[in-house]
Amino acid sequence: MEMTMRWYGRKYDTVTLEQIRQVCYVKGIITTLYEKLPGEIWSFKEILSMKKEIENAGLHLAGIESVNVSDAIKAGSSNRDRDIDAYIKTLENLGKADIHTVCYNFMPVFDWTRTELYRKREDGSTVLAYNQFQIDQIGPERMFNSIKDDMNGTIMPGWEPERMEKIKELFLLYKDIDEDQLFSNLKYFLDAIMPVCDKYNINMAIHPDDPSWSVFGLPRIVSDYKKLKRIIDMVPNKHNGITFCTGSYGTNLNNDLVHTISMLKGRIHFAHIRNLRFNNGMRDFEESAHLSSDGFFNMYTIMKSLHDIGFEGPIRPDHGRMIWDEKAMPGYGLYDRALGAAYLCGLWEAIEKKEI
Ligand code: DNO
Fold first, then answer.
1. CA distance linking residue 176 with residue 154, whole number of Å
2. pLDDT score of 356
3. Can you name the residues that pair with 203 across neighbouring β-strands?
């Protein structure tokens, strides 16, 4: 595996590449061209300059998170082919630049959803949290406004203002789309992009729905093992793979993380590792430190199962707590993610050395 950290680019991130380099445990960067809207082509020149910047800082560009998929593609609208052509051109340019991992999601309207970005813990740190009861009380627009006011002056992925301006339109677009239709739109997209992925050896890694159930009545199809299996089987190409995100699949306590990893050998191309604490019920959780004892998941068994399937792709310590008075994009500060990287590397080293 390659330990990585997500970075949003000099213009948007509060963390610098120079700081990440000093984390030492982290060698790879997961990034994106943050300004690009879904449906826009990423030019070879733009990609190359992003790559050079990372390499000049002594780091390796390990993958893209995300090349976003447009709602026309997700909803299967009449203009989807135009956006798919643009996506293929972007993949081609990424391939030519020697970039081989691309994360994306297929969640309608919203990317991930939380009700709080700064829930205070007893030690003074803050974390992102989700409470279904609160979601049920507010509509999507109110949820967007409350998140927007809490972003610390940053722009959070999936919550871009131009996207939220169109929220009513977007809900209408998905009015007649059920899960089966969404699966079929995903298949249409994947079938179209697999040839370029084959040509340039690009691993597509679909990100799970976060949380792993339907929010505001929208269909969601990347949320449990059965659905993952359906995605993997409907386009039987190794480049059609997944991002294994413990904090997303893990929101549903019926999901067996270790079993899912072992069943998806060869098709997990990217891993997001973080831990969760559950409060009064299954649909009420908050993010915790990566440490097993701080949350619900056994990080050792998760890392061990990734090791056992021979996982060689990028791993990133996912969202961290906000600690030591850091001001950053919620979930994406430097300090707690650096602690997470150190911890996960420690587990990995112990697992590897035990194998000898
Ligand atoms: C949230 C992230 C997601 C993820 C996208 C992938 O912090 O995990 O925004 O990057 O769903 O397309």
1. 34
2. 62
3. 101
CATH assignment of 2-355, among 3.20.20.150, 3.10.129.10, 3.40.190.10, 3.30.43.10: 3.20.20.150
248 lines ligand 1 (CB under 6 A): no
Instruction: Specify the residue for token string 């190794």.
Output: 238
Compute how many other C-beta atoms are within 10 angstroms of the C-beta atom of residue 262: 13
Our answer to whether residue 272 is catalytic in this structure is yes
The strands making up 284-287's β-sheet, listed across from edge to edge, are: 116-120, 126-131, 284-287, 276-278
Ligand 1 atom with minimal separation from the 107 CA: 11
DSSP symbol at 211? S
Amino acid at 308: D
> Which residues of the chain, if any, have pLDDT below 50?
none
112 Cα to the center of ligand 1, angstroms: 7
Q: Which of 71, 104, 174, 245 is catalytic?
A: 245
* Residue 105 CA, ligand 1 centroid: distance in Å: 7
- Check 104, 272, 335, 345 and give the catalytic one: 272
CA of 157 to the centre of ligand 1 (A): 7
Strand 2-6 to 240-245 pairing: unpaired
The predicted-structure confidence for 123-173, as pLDDT tens digits, reads as follows 999 999 999 988 888 877 777 777 777 776 777 777 777 777 788 888 999
Atom of ligand 1 nearest to the CA of 157: 9
Best CA proximity match to 245, nearest among 57, 30, 24, 15: 30
Domain ranges, ordered by start, for the chain:
2-355
Q: Output the pLDDT for position 144.
A: 77
Active-site residue (options: 209, 319, 336, 343): 319
What is the residue-averaged pLDDT of the chain?
A: 94
- Clarify whether 307 is annotated catalytic: no
Task: Provide the pLDDT for residue 214.
Answer: 92
Residue nearest (by alpha carbon) to ligand 1 atom 2:
112
Q: Peptide bond preceding 108: is omega within 30 degrees of 0, i.e. cis?
A: no
Q: Are the C-beta atoms of 84 and 193 separated by less than 8 Å?
A: yes
User: Residue 318 catalytic?
Assistant: yes
Return the pLDDT at 246.
98
Residue appearing with tokens 């084959």: 198
**Does any ligand 1 atom lie closer than 6 A to the CB of residue 104?**
yes
